[in-house]
Design brief:
294 residues; mainly alpha; 11 helices; Sterol desaturase family protein
Amino acid sequence: MPNLPDVVLWSIPAFVLLTVVEIVTVRLHPDEEQAGYETKDAATSVTMGIGSLGFDFLWKIPVVAVYTLAYELTPLRVPVLWWSVPLVLLAQDFFYYWSHRGHHVIRILWACHVVHHSSRRFNLTTALRQPWTSLTSWPFYLPLILLGVHPAVLAFCSSVNLVYQFGIHTERIGRLPRPVEFLFNTPSHHRVHHASQGGYLDRNFGGILIVWDRLFGSFAAETVRPVYGLTKNIETYNPLRVATHEYAAIARDVRAATTWRERAGRVFRGPGWSPDPPAATAPAAAPLAPEATR
């Protein structure tokens, strides 16, 4: 097994330090147009992050089993060398784009990912607001395993991607130099992703690179100031409700559905999908008046 460092574990001190620095700058130099911090919101985000560590450990058991089986069955092998790991990271970022996009456009997947978008704030603690049902992501990366990428290398690259994205959850950084903004996911691009305005919805899915969004038509530049949160915000700081509210909404909609087509749509169509209303029946034509006698 490749001996690769635990990037997330080594990054925890930096997470704490950067969060403290951001809180201090918000307090010393507040910006009324920025969402800033709110104690209950930040506490909920941190709680969701801590909880996700435990749940992720449980979900990884079956995922590692599937990945290990697939790796043993495939005849392909990608060597773990200084030049191959960056290429695997590039490939992982590509599949992350499609996983992230899928989790926005398929409602049962959105029920997992909606947790990360449920805060009306946008700061470094928002990055920690992670779902407790992340079992939904593994199929998107299975092609990499079948191509010969060792599961440990995939886990390392996924961790690098996650650590990178921590730093882009901030309003304290404006636009970066144009070449950086063109190639990489930046705080400006990610603020758009977390916004709830119509023109910003379902945009900027990239992890490390923003070029995937430019290539596949999902890019939007930051123009007007974002309004963070959901199109229908949840009025709770309860971590259990934050983690499960969309699953509960799906269950209610499925129970209320009247056809199997609608039930399937409530689960597998987009988060805002609803069946077309029945076509209005045209009123019956009035009987023709009898012709006048000549």
